[in-house]
Amino acid sequence: MSGNTDFFPIVRNRYFYGKLLTVRDFEVEQSYLRKKSQLLSRLSLGAGVVCGLGVSASDDATLLIESGMALDYQGRMVVVEEPLLRKLQMLQGQEALQGAETAYLCLQYDETDVEPVNAVGADTGESRQCNMTSEGFRLFLTTQPPEFRGLLEAAGRDNVSVLYASQELTLVLSVPEAVCAGQEFTAEVLVVKNERTPPVHFRLEGESAFVDSDDGRVRLEFRETPGEKRRVYTAAFPLKARQLSGMDSPLFPNGGEINLELGSHSYKNYIEVEARCHLCADEAGLEARRQLTDSLERRLRGRDLPIYLAKLELIHSAGSMFLASVTNLPFGQRLRREAGRAGSRELQTVTTNVRSLEYWQKPDVRAVYQQATGALHFDFGIPAPEQYDYAVSHGTVELTMPGGLRVNSKVYSEEIAHGLGPGAVDVRLSIEFADQAADGETALYFGNSEVFKGKTAPATPPWVEAAALVYPQRGTMRIGLWLHDMVEGNRLTVHYFAQKPERDTSRILAQRQVSLTVTPEFAHVSRRGSLRLQAEVVGGEDKRVVWRVREEGGGSIDANGVYQAPELPGTYEIVAAAAADETVTASAFVIVE
Predict the structure, then answer these.
(1) 42: Cβ–Cβ under 8 A, 6 or more apart, which residues?
(2) Which tens digits make up the pLDDT trace of 20-29?
(3) Is 377 in contact with 230 (CB distance < 8 Å)?
(4) How many angstroms separate the CA atoms of 95 and 88, rounded?
(5) What angle do CA 555, 559, 564 make, to 5 degrees?
(6) I want to staple 393 with a disulfide (CB 3.0 to 4.6 A). Which of 54, 189, 243, 419 is the partner?
């Protein structure tokens, strides 16, 4: 149960001698103070994490949520008073994660009535009531991404438009509603991608009536670097308004053309962009415009939004679910604090990424700090356990029932081969029976049949226990039945399901693929200048590469990747080949000026 979500009307008790105080009056007394406090918090502070609530992977299936406090979009405090360890399978919403590669860990305000007592003398309602209401929180998982327009508008963004949306990538544009003539303003594109999304390259362009450019067109182009590890971030594009004023105009009056490249996939489309700007003559006019549009309704947007604590990348294997990476506060729902001293910058965000390495590789930990944004990123490479595969076998055995009284009797099969050869195997047994509750349909039951005894049971299996005796050296087994009660018919059919773990290292090595990346992909260098290139080999133990310059007279490069530019200007291709497999290559292009 959640608290009252209506701020208005704000009323308080008026006291007078002889006033009869009822439950309603005391509820109004509490509601008055709560509404005003929540409204003030929402309007003056905003919504988001105040402190703590960092999320990290404790292991490949467990999340660690630090203690902390947040203000939700109704101004209510959401307090997590102590650190929490939660298995993915323990969290609400985990049942919807099957097959999903991405999920979001969300936090919401919640409250629960506690301390049940007898309501003595109550004329109406239940005689059993709760004496207190405990304010708390609710953690849950969802595979649904947020409604980005509502999320960004609640954060104060204007002109929000979704440019592209798929399972791999979402692009969301936001542009100020009012700009000052002749001055720069910023258009922003929120980039939301997944673990396996290839490097992103997009371009949005079209004619514009008020953006200052040489050809009267706006071009927002962004190319992701190969080493980009973030799953959610914002690309900013500085634009300049023309010397016009007192006019309203769309950013793209005739629509925009979006071109998108994701690896080998290309996408091109003409779209309508709902971004309309008002040009103000000067700063005073811009401030007046902001005051005019800064309404209460605008400030109270998104009242049902949760706090998205983390974006989770998931891996599904052998029926289980594991964490690939965790991105904290992907949509920046944090309340900012001023720096402690001039020129200093707080650590604003900490993000983590967990890579699964082959079991023979060494653990790898990297940290990158971006001073401009105050962001710290940790990249953990954790070796996977040595992998196994399973050989499986299934069959049936028919056992003849003894004559006469069968209660508490036992019957055994001959020694049979389970089909998986010598070695330890795991055997599960089930009893076949005709389910009379389902019109005689054949059914199998596993485990204790007493679970299904009783008037409300959905089936009536025979009261029989089954066990297997396995001979690992011979690759055989015997099956036995213990009849606790009379069994109809002369025979019982037992199904066996056997599985045997097999080391799968050879298959892993056979399927291992070597890949190679070179950074930077594009670079500028002066004539006779030098530049250091780096190559990363993934999928093999041999990390060596062989460097060469494709063009004759295009300079030289040594074994450490240090390139020496020639005297002649031009564009030259540097090729790196993996020493383990010279057919695996990657290129970088150097522009010598």
Answers:
(1) 71, 73, 74, 75, 299, 300
(2) 888 888 888 8
(3) yes
(4) 10
(5) 25
(6) 419
